[in-house]
Model the fold of this input.
Amino acid sequence: QVHLVESGGGLVQAEGSLRLSCAASGGIFSTYSMGWFRQAPGKEREFVATISRSDGSTFYADSVKGRFTISRDNTKGTIYLQMNNLKADDTAVYHCAASSTYTARVPSISYEYWGQGTQVTVSS
Done:
């Protein structure tokens, strides 16, 4: 059983930056591909970014490409999401998730474990 805890959310002005963290425990972190998802009020959960366990390759949603960067530190069992040039549309609860798949995956159904989320609010 993998336990995920997100942190780093908050209120930021448009064009500002935030760095989210997701700490994992209870499993062998390096054996999981990891992802970030977000859910805004009244909207479905959507994919943001993913990083594979195999070679650290990454993949991003078009809406965040060039602004967000996902990374991982296997020694700390943590992934990060650096978010720059934030926009009001980025306002959402951000969740990290863990997948036992070898490569990074987009569909949320690929992920077995989920964190509770951290709120990101971008004021325009």
Observations:
- The chain has a mean pLDDT of 95.
- The chain is about 0% helix and 50% strand.
- The radius of gyration is 13 Å.
